[in-house]
Design goal:
Strand order of the largest sheet: 3-2-1-4-5-6-7
Shape: globular
Radius of gyration: 21 Å
Distance between the termini: 34 Å
Largest sheet: 7 strands, parallel
Number of helices: 17
Structural class: alpha/beta
Low-confidence stretches: 363-371
């Protein structure tokens, strides 16, 4: 079969690599489409280099814009591509604007659509990602769930059993394939860090960084933690702009965005990670590193129930209290089922074995089929 895999933003690159590799091992003709949603070299090119991900076959070059502008530009460019490419399947990972845009176009073009990371739910409709992931699931034929709770969500949404496959977490495929390489990187020495004696933090969600009062509170909490251990913050360009002009606490070191291998090394060596990222919740769980999620909801609750993550919200006092508790004791290492480095192979097998139900969900059912 001819299968088009889509990647648009930093998290997608880690997710698409094991899928592409597994599909190629299975003998399929694959193409990689980069939408250009992330285009800064520090947010895009470095990941291709670090992961050994082949150059995109197609680059749509959509760049930034409002959610509507960006989604529309991806749809227009991807539709033009599909008119000539005509793949059997379109595979979309994650929950960014490119994910939804390419799923919609693929479904309307008559391609089968497979959603990698299907079924994740935060219940927070103020998150653009929540809208993207729910809508992508709805137009997809094959729902590739990373965890048992995601399967439960999909069943609760009424999807047919043949559409849902529990395959595990592709992010973890990439992590386990690269963690030893990451540990050889000199990033800790370059920053003067000692393994187990620093805190890593990331901030990027608009709900945290675009509201001055929220960001001020988070910086205050991070500064308090920095009185115990040095805190390192790799800052997305937009976050760095928000930090400009603020008096940052002395225990906080802001650095440029880290490449994939360097960031894994920073996570692996940290005593504690504080983040608002979904992927970091997953990676720290497998690395066995304590994680505090600076949000009131998470679409990855399995990292709390079966991992090293704690959901602590954005109240500065609650964050400081939770950090003090975690730094004062060891955290139990736990890993969810099928987070074992073989999700990509299961995805290829699920696509190979996919058969539509007796009633094709894309076609109006005849009356006798409903009896």
């Amino acid at each position: 079969m001819k299968i088009t895999c889509v990647a648009g933003a930093r998290p997608n690159f880690m997710k698409v690599k094991p899928v592409l590799d597994a599909l190629e091992r299975a003998g399929h003709q694959t193409e990689l489409v980069h939408t250009g949603q992330h285009y800064d070299p520090a947010m895009s090119d470095v990941f291709f280099d670090d992961l050994g991900l082949r150059a995109p076959d197609v680059h749509l070059g959509v760049r930034s814009g409002t959610h509507a502008e960006q989604t529309a530009r991806v749809m227009i460019a991807f539709e033009a591509h599909l008119d000539g490419s005509k793949p059997d399947w379109v595979v979309v990972p994650g929950d960014v604007n490119s994910t939804l845009a390419c799923a919609l176009v693929g479904a309307k073009a008559g391609c089968r659509v497979a959603h990698v990371e299907a079924g994740l739910r935060s219940g927070d409709w103020t998150m653009p990602e929540e809208i993207n992931r729910v809508a992508t699931d709805r137009v997809s034929d094959l729902l590739l769930a990373p965890s048992a709770d995601a399967v439960d969500n999909l069943r609760g949404d009424g999807f047919a059993a043949h559409q849902i496959q529990l395959v595990g977490n592709v992010m973890i495929d990439t992590l386990l394939a690269n963690v030893e390489r990451a540990r050889q990187r000199p990033i800790l020495d370059d920053l003067g860090l000692v393994r187990g004696e620093y805190v890593l933090t990331t901030l990027h969600r608009p709900s945290n960084v675009d509201h001055p009062e929220v960001l001020d509170g988070l910086i205050r909490a991070i500064g308090a933690v920095g009185e115990w251990l040095r805190v390192v913050l790799p800052a997305h360009p937009r976050v760095r702009a928000q930090l400009a002009g603020r008096a940052l606490p002395p225990g906080l070191t802001v650095i440029d965005p880290a490449g994939y291998l360097d960031f894994v090394a920073l996570q692996d060596g940290a005593r504690l990670v504080m983040t608002d990222s979904g992927g970091v919740q997953e990676e720290t769980t497998v690395l066995g590193v304590p994680c505090l999620t600076l949000r009131t909801t998470t679409e990855r609750p399995i990292t709390v129930t079966e991992g090293t993550n704690r959901l602590v919200g954005i109240d500065p006092d609650a964050i400081m209290t939770a950090a003090g508790v975690v730094l004062g004791r060891e955290v139990e290492r736990r890993r969810p089922e099928l987070w074992d480095g073989r999700a990509g192979s299961r995805i290829a097998a699920a696509i190979d074995g996919f058969e539509v139900d007796a009633i094709d969900l894309r076609q109006p059912a005849r009356a006798e089929e409903l009896v």
